[in-house]
Amino acid sequence: MSPPAAAPDTAALAGCEALLRPEGMHHEIELGGIRLGYRLRRASRRTIGFAVGPAGLTVSVPRWVGQAQIDAALRHKSAWILRQLAAQGRRHQAHQDARVDWRDGAELPWLGAPLRLRLAPLLSRTLLQAARPLTQEPATLLLALPADTPPEALRAAVQRWLQRQARTLFEARIALHAGAMGVQIRQLRLSSARTRWGSASSDGSIRLNWRLIHFPVETIDYVVVHELAHLREMNHSPAFWAIVHAAMPDYEQRRRQLKDGVVPVFD
Ligand SMILES: [Zn+2]
Questions:
Q1: Which of 144, 154, 161 is nearest to 110 (CA)?
Q2: Ligand 1 centroid from CA 223, angstroms
Q3: Could you give the CA distance from residue 242 to residue 234 in angstroms, rounded to a whole number?
Q4: Ligand 1 center to residue 200 CA distance, Å?
Q5: pLDDT at residue 144, rounded to an integer
Q6: pLDDT of residue 124
């Protein structure tokens, strides 16, 4: 006798209307106690296919298949469908949690600790251009902006500030590690790619993602050392990792922090 299948973690679906009532849905079924809407596509194909994405479930069926057969196929596949939907729900939740509410008092991570945004419209005109942090608990970024600043304008101002911070910090960290590793860089550029933290080219220039500024300096240092090591080995060979390890014996731990970290959503 086989053990009962583990109940899918449907709690992750609670409140996820985009997944349970997908846009353009025209069919519904009850699976595992959940009323689930889905899109049905008729196509010239031989089998019934299921796809779960950020917009919920899509079922593709051959033109000749009737509703009873579709329902049976959905029930047969229900454990897989609910697992996929729950995974989508968790991804959606993580994304929501990382979303910054762009208004006075909002917080976002800066160098691995919370940074609170304060709108300070009475700051002098000079400070209007030079937003500066005050070291308190948590650190506060005073922005000389009116209280009714639209979220997009606040986001843009904070992003500019973070990018300036990133450049200054990255330059200092590169100077520190490049000296110790015996390499020289020609140029530093900031990037803002979603999925890439850094890159190096054989002409000696390095790109670092400004979003790294959300992480602790130890984590940023790993990316700096990684890219500097590429100036000696333009690959991920054992020789490359030996250079990284010599410069930073605990690099694996820092690398994990980078992978596990959640970066705020700026849009
Ligand atoms: Zn690399």
A1: 161
A2: 9
A3: 13
A4: 8
A5: 85
A6: 54
Answer yes or no: do 162 and 224 share one domain: yes
pLDDT, tens digit, 9 for 90 and up, residues 155-174: 999 999 999 999 999 999 99
128 and 185 fall within a common domain: yes
The band of 99, judged by pLDDT with boundaries at 50, 70 and 90, is: confident
- In 130-250, which residue ranges form alpha helices assigned H by DSSP? 151-181, 217-230, 238-247
Other Cβ atoms less than 10 A from the Cβ of 126: the count is: 8
- Cα(212) to centroid of ligand 1, in Å? 16
Tell how far the Cα of 248 is from the centroid of ligand 1, in angstroms: 15
Q: How far is the CA of 199 from the centre of ligand 1 (A)?
A: 7
pLDDT class for 42, splitting at 50, 70, 90? very high
CA of 46 to the centre of ligand 1 (A): 44
- Neighbouring CB atoms inside 10 A of 201's CB total 15
Q: 229 alpha carbon to ligand 1 midpoint, in Å?
A: 8
Range of the domain at 240: 107-260
Cα–Cα distances (Å) from 33 to 8, 75, 79, 116, 118, in that order, read 11, 12, 12, 42, 46
Measured in angstroms, how far is the CA atom of residue 221 from the centroid of ligand 1? 14
Shared domain for 52 and 112, answered yes or no, is no
Q: Which of 44, 77, 97 is the last residue of a domain?
A: 97
Using the mean position of ligand 1's atoms as its centre, give its distance from the Cα of residue 182 in Å: 18
Cα-to-centroid distance, 204 and ligand 1 (Å): 14
From the CA of 118, how far away is ligand 1's center (Å)? 38
Mean pLDDT value of segment 137-165:
88
266 occurs within a structural domain: no
